[in-house]
Sequence to fold (156 residues):
Amino acid sequence: MDKSLETFKNLRADYKNSKESSHRYVATVGVGGNVGDVMRRFNRLYSYLKKDKRVDLLQTSLILKNPPFGFVNQDDFFNSIILLGTNMQPKVFLDYLMRLEKKFARKRSFANAPRTLDLDIIFFDNRVVKTPKLQIPHAEWFERKSVLIPLMDIYR
Fold:
């Protein structure tokens, strides 16, 4: 493995729901951040999602620490994958995720800027969506170790 990558099994975050989801769709969501206490924030996010009736937190992956790309003059990122059950349609689900980012103090200053929380829809069931605001599957998921390594952990 690349020496710039490090993985963590966070006991509070490593989660697999034992019950079936009552929701219609399964969304694969990339979770990232590099500002402040990211591990604590991930745990707070997972606790929030477990209580939110609009989604079922089905599973979380390992957490990967990896260097930034794009704008590289910033701290390393922590990345994970979560599976969420939902009845929301993709655009409504995207709006939901953007509100969650804001709840966790995400500021959008410039592309690839440091951030407290980044939530990206990687897959949404087997749907394909191509709009100016939303692309599913995520355009570059297959090129990013920050997605591939946590995804392999989920599907191992």
About this structure: The chain has a mean pLDDT of 89. The chain has three helices and eight strands.
